[in-house]
Amino acid sequence: MDRPEVDELTPPDRTLMGPGPSDVHPRVLRAMSTPLVGHLDPAFVEIMDETQELLRYAFRTDNQWTIPVSGTGSASMEAAIGNLVEPGETMLVPTNGYFGGRMADMARRAGGEVVEVDAPWGEPLDPADVKNAFDEHQPDVFGFVHAETSTGVRQPSVPELTSIAHDHDAYVIADCVTSLGGVELRVDDWDVDVAYSGPQKCLSCPPGASPLTLNDRAMDKVLGREEPSRSWYLDLSLLEGYWGDERAYHHTAPITNVYALRESLRFVAEEGIEQRWDRHRDVAGALKAGVEAMGLEMNAADEFWLPSLNAVRVPDGVTDGAVIESLLANYDVEIAGGLGDLSGDIFRIGCMGHSARPGNVSFLVSALGETLREQGADVDVGAGTETVASEL
């Protein structure tokens, strides 16, 4: 085999306004270039402690068991479901988006039985339907998606959902991948047992170390399992030895990713979590107002609009793929199309973390409007850009 000749790495400089990853602040990138230390080095142990404390602040929790899982957001998702769902147990999952389906798949792989609570794609779960599903099926675990990335829907009334589950002695797992650090989330106040997220969305951190938090009730269930988790790597009873007080070897942590997560969480603390929620709502609100003034429609109703992920209906006369490709080629702007039931029907436009800036939104609305007009859509680009300017 011939020796390969590969040029120096020169990726394009994109404006990331899709469903993730989001733009990363230079400070976070610099943190990743700092010297490597061992994963059991006392200096790194101190960094681990700091990262855990910063994660507790972002999750709004006092949970001792709050860690970054080594892997992408799907790893923290599988750690949550694979540890809490035991073989033979029943998990209730939603049908109103792509990631409820992923919950179901992971629960089955963990040996669980799956039952569903139905809602259309583009709408949140109705607490009455959740209660009826509990009365009928008596599930052991209930999973819901707080911020559904595939539909642009924010699940309201979370305390009502957790109350229903706990009245039936069930455990609650919340998918917070597109809400942590960008949308109001209060793990303790809302009585959520387990919450997981990814770093590359509202935290604006490269993927690789993914947030997870469990309360004492959930961790007691994990530690009391009759048989171990089917995943050795994601077995929280083993990870307890590394991220708990003992700091014993389990695996080599992704050290530079932990550096990055710590720095991105420092941004959250410096800005203030509630101020950060306000910024996402205000900047994304300008984006929403701009695309609506242009003549486009949002997929989600106003009462459960998700600021961090704006699902915009594809207008007549264009195809989503052509618009997405043109934005990337001509403007270096990334957005995405729909998934599952909404494939071809929506654009998914992120407004997350470091990407949630006025300049990005102004640029995106202008570029999207011009691209849609070039593709034959009936849009008022001027009204869109003027509205954004007045909102910001």
UniProtKB/TrEMBL annotation:
<dbReference type="GO" id="GO:0019265">
    <property type="term" value="P:glycine biosynthetic process, by transamination of glyoxylate"/>
</dbReference>
<feature type="domain" description="Aminotransferase class V">
    <location>
        <begin position="38"/>
        <end position="335"/>
    </location>
</feature>
<comment type="similarity">
    <text>Belongs to the class-V pyridoxal-phosphate-dependent aminotransferase family.</text>
</comment>
<dbReference type="GO" id="GO:0004760">
    <property type="term" value="F:L-serine-pyruvate transaminase activity"/>
</dbReference>
<dbReference type="InterPro" id="IPR000192">
    <property type="entry name" value="Aminotrans_V_dom"/>
</dbReference>
<dbReference type="InterPro" id="IPR015421">
    <property type="entry name" value="PyrdxlP-dep_Trfase_major"/>
</dbReference>
<keyword id="KW-0663">Pyridoxal phosphate</keyword>
<feature type="region of interest" description="Disordered">
    <location>
        <begin position="1"/>
        <end position="24"/>
    </location>
</feature>
<keyword id="KW-0032">Aminotransferase</keyword>
<dbReference type="InterPro" id="IPR015424">
    <property type="entry name" value="PyrdxlP-dep_Trfase"/>
</dbReference>
<protein>
    <submittedName>
        <fullName>Alanine--glyoxylate aminotransferase family protein</fullName>
    </submittedName>
</protein>
<keyword id="KW-0808">Transferase</keyword>
<dbReference type="Pfam" id="PF00266">
    <property type="entry name" value="Aminotran_5"/>
</dbReference>
<dbReference type="InterPro" id="IPR015422">
    <property type="entry name" value="PyrdxlP-dep_Trfase_small"/>
</dbReference>
<dbReference type="InterPro" id="IPR024169">
    <property type="entry name" value="SP_NH2Trfase/AEP_transaminase"/>
</dbReference>
<dbReference type="GO" id="GO:0008453">
    <property type="term" value="F:alanine-glyoxylate transaminase activity"/>
</dbReference>
